[in-house]
Amino acid sequence: MALLGGLLGRLLWFSGLRRGRHAPGTQAMEQDRALEVYDIIRTIRDPEKPNTLEELEVVTESCVEVHEINEEEYLVIIRFTPTVPHCSLATLIGLCLRIKLQRCLPFKHKLEIYISEGTHSTEEDINKQINDKERVAAAMENPNLREIVEQCVTEPD
What would the pLDDT profile of 8-20 be if each residue is shown by its tens digit? Predict the structure, then answer.
């Protein structure tokens, strides 16, 4: 009976049906997708400085998580770290991350963007703003704000 149980366990593991586990290929696919996401966001420019978010360590490879929702869709979670706890542009950085990923991700996704826990004085409020579709849409209707976002997300020639 133990042999049958072990065989069944391995079969479920490889099929991806065992609860709480992924089929071996799924985890590798999620890691590949996470690197793909990071490659897109690392070149976003800081709104105040001439540096990229990668150069300022606002985003790192470890701040990106990707989880398969189903065969065709992924949950993308970004946790970025503002340069200072009272950064006045944290909301704008979150907006830039969202806009660039919405435009550039080549796969179907749900997107959640957060400030890394404990790294900003108003992180809860900012997290709500950057994950609210209506607020994001309203922000992008503002021509001044849209121009700043475009400058930050446009790839240098």
Answer: 444 444 444 433 4
Tell me the β-bridge partners of 79.
Answer: 114
The predicted-structure confidence for 38-57, as pLDDT tens digits, reads as follows 999 999 999 999 999 999 99
CA diameter of the chain: 69
What SS3 state is found at 53? coil
Distance (Å, rounded) from C-alpha 119 to C-alpha 123?
Answer: 7
pTM (2 d.p.) = 0.82
**pLDDT score of 24:** 55
Q: Is 120 exposed, middle or buried (0-12, 13-18, 19+ CB in 10 A)?
A: buried
Tally of CA atoms within 13 A in the half-sphere of 13 that contains its CB: 7
CA distance 117 to 138: 26
What residues contact 147, with CB distance under 8 A and at least 6 apart?
Answer: none
